[in-house]
Write a structure and sequence with these properties.
Order of helices and strands: HHHHHHHH
Radius of gyration: 24 Å
Helix content: 40-55%
Largest sheet: none
Number of strands: 0
Structural class: mainly alpha
Strand content: under 5%
Length: 180
């Protein structure tokens, strides 16, 4: 690091943009060149400006997890083009979560914001019983359907009722008693 100068670092990036990772000194132009060459180079940029981050995301949304200061604008762009990117979004809003969920109901696992409608759709329409534990909203009918399909879901029911516990206990090969 002591032997590096800004000029030497610029030369290294001119020859191979992936060399940015080894550069102690960086300026905007060399970072822009490196990110343009490979969006994942954003992780090596010391000063991740909004426009460099946006450029990286527009090139490849999967680099979103390398961005330290994510904004809703870049995250929305990432989720619109690749809904499973929701898992790497440090900040979320309901619109983003609904967008990811509507593209694939199993993105509910990563959604910080959920609605009762999302829970109903996952369990009642798509029979996503294995995903029950990720639901924030547990209506009685959703809980009933999930436990009826798989008694093990009783473990994740927030408000266990006697009829729900009976339902789990009546199923074959159950070991529901620890969850009651």
């Amino acid at each position: 690091k002591e032997d590096q100068s800004l000029d030497l670092c610029r030369l290294a990036v001119d020859l191979d943009p992936n060399q940015l990772r080894y550069d102690h000194f960086q300026d905007y132009d060399m970072c822009k060149k490196a990110v343009r060459h490979n969006s994942y180079n954003i992780r090596y940029v010391h000063d991740q400006t909004h426009d460099l981050c946006l450029m990286a995301v527009r090139q490849n949304v999967l680099c979103i997890d390398s961005i330290r200061n994510q904004t809703l604008e870049m995250l929305m762009e990432a989720v619109k083009s690749h809904p499973s990117c929701l898992r790497d979004c440090k900040i979320q809003n309901l619109e983003m979560c609904e967008l990811a969920f509507n593209a694939n109901v199993y993105n509910i696992k990563y959604a910080q914001f959920q609605t009762v409608e999302m829970s109903n759709k996952l369990i009642l329409e798509h029979e996503g019983y294995a995903w029950f534990k990720y639901l924030h909203h547990q209506t009685p009918e959703v809980c009933w359907a999930a436990v009826k399909a798989e008694w093990q879901n009783l473990e994740f029911v927030k408000d266990k009722t006697i009829p729900l516990c009976r339902l789990a206990h009546q199923q074959p090969h159950n070991h529901a008693l620890p969850f009651v």
